[in-house]
Predict the structure.
Amino acid sequence: MLMDIEPFSLVDYPGHIVATVFFGGCNFQCGYCQNPALVDVKEKPSQTSPSAVIEFMKTRKGLLDGVCLTGGEPLLSTDLVPLAREIWELGFKVKLDTNGSSLEKLQEVAPCLDYIAMDIKCTPEKYPELTGCRNSGDKISETVEWIKNSGIPYEFRTTVLPVWHPFEDLTVIRKLLGQETSWVLQQFRQPPQGVLDGKTYEAYPDSWLKEMGEKLNCPVRGLK
């Protein structure tokens, strides 16, 4: 479900000024998710519509470079493909944030994408436990390989927490992605509004995460 639009962002699409379009609903139930309001949206009203987004973007020609389509999981929405196509046909760049679980839908929208950012939650064997989604690790590996060979600029990214990401697991992920593959480590910050499962999660010290980024050849985001 299309939920809302943020009209201006400098951080959601590296190097570009964009509007950010939020989709509600997600097939993953990651406990530390920082957007719990976008996971289960059955009882929540949408604050916008595809037609409203398009009309807004028409007023931003020459002011914005493009849009970031994020969630939740955008690929679950029937609005995604036609909306992405219409935005792209207006001449804007289109970036997609995804958990990588719906390769067929990703392939469908791919002709309209200029950038893909895919979350790597953990090592493949831990995916079912972390996401609550059976066999999700197998699907992720297939999507990773497709993205790497798609010709579309991309990045993989992992929000790192001690409970899910010991250094040994990070080295496994680096090996699976390949040494030269673009992979970003993100620092976890407990948000004031809480996370999906209501728990309080410990983060690694910034110094540790910075050191791991150097060892794994990864940039690190979110350090103080």
Remarks:
- DSSP finds seven helices and eight strands in the chain.
- Helices lie at 50-58, 80-89, 103-109, 127-131, 136-148, 167-177, 206-216.
- The two ends are 34 Å apart (CA to CA).
- The domain at 2-221 is CATH 3.20.20.70 (TIM Barrel).
